[in-house]
Specification:
Layout (H helix, E strand, L loop, with lengths): L2 H19 L3 E5 L2 H9 L7 E4 L3 H5 L2 H7 L3 E3 L7 H11 L4 E4 L3 E3 L4 E5 L3 H7 L4 E7 L3 E2 L2 H20 L4 H5 L14 E5 L8 E6 L6
Parallel strand pairs: 1-10, 2-3, 2-4, 4-7, 5-8, 7-10
Antiparallel strand pairs: 5-6, 6-9
Length: 211
C-alpha cells in the first residue's frame, strides 16, 4: 500500500465513523470494484431504481451493470420530451432506491449537495425507501463550510460544462454567484443527520471519482 493509499484509508475510516455517528449506514471501499459489489448487495431486480445526474455511478460501473442485467431502472433520459423527462423525475421520488453521489462530505460526516432542479436533493431528503451515495475520497473536505465551497467552486463549475448553460461558471470556469435561469446551484442542501437511521447508505471509495 502506497503512502497515499494509507492516508486515504485512514481518512476514509475516520469519516465512516463520523457518518455512522449521524445515523448513516456507511462503509469504506479501497477500490471502485469493491464499491460496485457493495452497492449491488443493497439492490435486487424487484426494486424500482432511479438516480440523479451522477458521473460516479458510471465510473464504478453500477449503471452499466444495472442496464445490462435487467434491473428495473427508471431513467429520465428515456423521456422523449422535457415534459416526459420531468414526469420521470417526479416518479423517481417514489422509487425503492435512488442512486447518487455527493458534491462534498465533511470530515465530521455531513453531506453537501448543490442542485439546479432539486430532483436529486429532493430524493436525498425524502421519498425513496433508500438512497445509496457513492463518493470518491476527493470529495472529503475539512468542514461543512469547506464542503459548500467545494460544491460551489469546484463541483458546480465542472458540472456546468456538461450542460453548456448560460452561466458565468460555464463561460469562465469559476462561480459567479449568479441568478441565471440555467444556474445549477439553485438548491444548496446540507444533510447533517440521516432520518430515519440507515435510510441513506454512503460508500466512500479510496479513489478519486466524479467532480
Amino acid at each position: 500500500m502506497t503512502p497515499v493509499e494509507k492516508r486515504n484509508q485512514k481518512l476514509g475510516e475516520k469519516v465512516v465513523k463520523a457518518l455512522e455517528s449521524r445515523h448513516f449506514e456507511a462503509c469504506w471501499c479501497a477500490t471502485k470494484e469493491e464499491a460496485l459489489q457493495k452497492a449491488l448487495g443493497w439492490l435486487d431486480k424487484q426494486m424500482q431504481i432511479s438516480y440523479g445526474g451522477t458521473a460516479t455511478m458510471e465510473e464504478i460501473g453500477l449503471l452499466p451493470y444495472l442496464r445490462e442485467n435487467g434491473y428495473n431502472l427508471l431513467e429520465r433520459s428515456k423521456g422523449k420530451t422535457p415534459e416526459e423527462q420531468a414526469e420521470i423525475m417526479r416518479r423517481a421520488l417514489l422509487c425503492d432506491t435512488f442512486l447518487m453521489s455527493a458534491n462534498a462530505i465533511s470530515e465530521d460526516g455531513q453531506l453537501v449537495n448543490v442542485d439546479g432542479r432539486a430532483n436529486r436533493v429532493a430524493a436525498l431528503c425524502f421519498g425513496p425507501k433508500q438512497v445509496i451515495v457513492v463518493a470518491g475520497v476527493n470529495k472529503i473536505v475539512r468542514s461543512a463550510e469547506d464542503a459548500v465551497v467545494r460544491a460551489r467552486t469546484i463541483a458546480a463549475p465542472i458540472n456546468a460544462q456538461r450542460f453548456d448553460g448560460d452561466t458565468p461558471c460555464t463561460k469562465q470556469g469559476v462561480c459567479g454567484d449568479c441568478k441565471s435561469p440555467d444556474c445549477i446551484c439553485a438548491q444548496i442542501v446540507t444533510t447533517r443527520l440521516c432520518k430515519p437511521a440507515g435510510r441513506i447508505k454512503v460508500i466512500l471509495v479510496g479513489e478519486p471519482l466524479g467532480f
